[in-house]
Structures are given as structure tokens and as C-alpha cells.
Write a structure and sequence with these properties.
about 325 residues; Farnesyl Diphosphate Synthase; about 0% strand; globular
Length: about 325
């Protein structure tokens, strides 16, 4: 059971929608409100990350509202574009058309800055937050540009991760901290911790995608998935067989055999090692900071570890959430 997202004062989607109800484009452009509602309904609730950071530094839930909306709008813009690039059949572009989806993505990016501009906070703090959000969206766009090139090799894997996957989480933490009254130095440190969280989540996503049935698009579109890349390139006894199985990966028997090699070759262990190291780094750095309520951030280690442990168990791989979260590692 995953309880880690339910331990602090909750901001309802209704409260966030009320905050932007006076922005004309929101009332006149139903598609934008619909995309935000989609973001607010997402299981992972990434839009709550600024709330966590804001509460951790001693701020209030109300102070975090513009940051939560800005992160929700940015994330939905990223998802709309990502679905177009990945040719996802259930993406917004498939429902509304590429033109409508493209305009919605642009509008959501603008809205992320508009809600911060609307916030009643000091001008210097407002400028710092807007700069962080603008830089995050620019960095992510560059990461998307790199990702569509299907660059190969582990160096490129981490390069794409550092641009496409991690700035979002760093910005979410920094934005929440600044809204909560943190000084610039503390907010910048939380940005760095958010980046590490982004790496952790990317690797967890790769684990989940590699073990999915039927074959995820990471197999079919030659995505640079960490596990698939490891099993395809590392020196192990079944590498040639794994490469051959990738040619028929849509066959359930081939997929099952390939996924078993992911376990035997050490690919799953390599991914888990990278996750555990990052969890330990996050906990160590958070405990060293002068946070008013650090549990709002440390609980994320537990949440993602429980989620990953459950997924692995469904695939016949047993590892405790405590081990994944580095709470039982010295």
C-alpha cells in the first residue's frame, strides 16, 4: 500500500482551478482547462512536489498553489509533446489533432509563467521562480530534441536523462522552496536533490517499461532504455541471444525470454543499484539541510520504493521497499 502522498495538507484540484479562474484564456479555451484537469488527476501527482518542498522549508500549503499549477501546466505540456513524438495512440494529438495539441502545449508553457506572475510574492523571488521554470522548460525541450535522435551508448543515456528527465524535478523542488520563503542557497540545494530524484524516477520508469507485457515502445522504437541497453552491450553469456530476441520482441515468447535475460544478465540489478545509490544520496543530503519539516521530502523515498517493490514482485523479483529506499543500507 502506498501512503506516502497522503501525509500532509492536501491541495484540491478545485482550489487550484479557482486560483486561475480569472485568467481569460482559461475560461475561453476549454482545452487548456481539460489538460490541467488531466494533470491534476494523474496518479503520481507530480504537481504536488512544490507543495512538499514548500512545507519542508516551513511554508504553507496556500503559498505553494502557484507553483503547483505551474508544474502541472509544464508537465502536461511536456506530456502532450512527448506523446506526439512517441506516436502514442491514446495521446491528446490522436484525439484533437496535431494542430490543436501543439497550440495547447504552447499555451500550457505560457500559463506556467503566467501563474507565477500572478502570485503575490516579492519581485525578486518571483523573478527567480520564473527563471527556474523557463530554464526547466528550455532544458527539457533540448532533452526531447536529443531523445528523438535515439542516441546510443550509456554516456548518451545519462546526457538525455540530465536534460529531458531531471530539470522538471529540480525545478519543482526549487519553486516550492522559494514560494515557502527559503533562501536562494537552500532552494538551489533542493534543486540539486530534485535532479537526483529525477534520475531515480527515470531509472524506475526504465525498469517498469522493460518488464511490461506486451512489449513497451522502448523495445519497438529502439529507445535507450538503461536495462535493454545493458543487456545488449554488456559482456555476458547471453548477449547474442538477447540481441536476436529483440528482432521478434512482439512475440510473447521472445519478450518473456528477453525479460528473463534482463534478470540473469545483471541488467535489473544494475538498475536497482543505481536507484539505491540515489536514494541514499537524497536521504544523506536532506538530513544535512536546515529543513523545518524534512519528512515531506524524505517520504518520497518510501513512496517510490514501495511502488517499485510492488511492480517487481508482480514480475517475480523479490526486493524489499526498505532496501530500495536505502533505509536498510548503511
Amino acid at each position: 500500500m502506498l501512503h506516502a502522498l497522503l501525509v500532509f495538507p492536501m491541495l484540491s484540484a478545485e482550489l487550484l482551478r479557482a486560483y486561475i479562474a480569472d485568467i481569460p484564456e482559461i475560461t475561453e479555451w476549454p482545452d487548456i482547462a481539460d489538460r490541467l484537469n488531466t494533470a491534476f488527476a494523474m496518479t503520481d501527482h507530480d504537481w504536488r512536489l512544490p507543495l512538499r518542498a514548500c512545507l519542508a522549508v516551513g511554508g504553507s500549503a496556500e503559498q505553494a498553489i502557484p507553483g503547483c499549477i505551474a508544474i502541472a501546466a509544464s508537465q502536461m505540456s511536456i506530456i502532450v509533446v512527448d506523446d506526439m513524438l512517441d506516436n502514442e495512440p491514446d495521446g491528446y494529438h490522436a484525439q484533437a489533432g496535431a494542430g490543436v495539441a501543439s497550440n495547447a502545449a504552447l499555451a500550457l508553457l505560457a500559463l506556467a509563467l503566467r501563474v507565477i506572475d500572478k502570485a503575490e510574492i516579492p519581485a525578486e523571488r518571483k523573478a527567480s521562480i520564473m527563471q527556474s521554470i523557463a530554464q526547466m522548460n528550455l532544458r527539457t525541450a533540448y532533452g526531447q530534441h536529443l531523445d528523438v535522435q535515439n542516441l546510443t551508448g550509456e554516456d548518451n543515456y545519462w546526457r538525455v536523462t540530465a536534460t529531458k528527465s531531471t530539470p522538471f524535478y529540480g525545478c519543482a523542488y526549487e519553486t516550492g522552496a522559494l514560494l515557502g520563503g527559503a533562501d536562494v542557497k537552500l532552494a538551489a540545494t533542493l534543486y540539486e536533490i530534485g535532479v537526483i530524484l529525477g534520475e531515480l524516477i527515470q531509472i524506475e520508469d526504465d525498469l517498469t517499461d522493460a518488464l511490461k507485457t506486451p512489449a513497451n515502445s522502448d523495445w519497438n522504437e529502439e529507445r535507450n532504455n538503461l536495462l535493454i541497453m545493458y543487456a545488449s552491450t554488456a559482456d555476458h553469456a547471453e548477449r547474442a541471444q538477447f540481441r536476436q530476441l529483440r528482432t521478434c520482441i512482439n512475440d510473447p515468447a521472445c519478450l518473456d525470454a528477453a525479460q528473463q535475460i534482463l534478470v540473469r544478465s545483471g541488467a535489473v540489478s544494475y538498475a536497482l543499484y543505481n536507484i539505491i545509490v540515489r536514494n541514499q544520496t537524497i536521504l544523506t543530503r536532506l538530513h544535512a539541510l536546515p529543513l523545518a519539516e524534512p519528512h515531506h521530502l524524505t517520504q518520497l523515498n518510501t513512496y517510490y520504493a514501495e511502488r517499485l517493490s510492488d511492480m517487481l514482485a508482480r514480475n517475480g523479483i523479490s526486493i524489499s521497499a526498505e532496501t530500495i529506499a536505502a533505509t536498510s543500507v548503511t
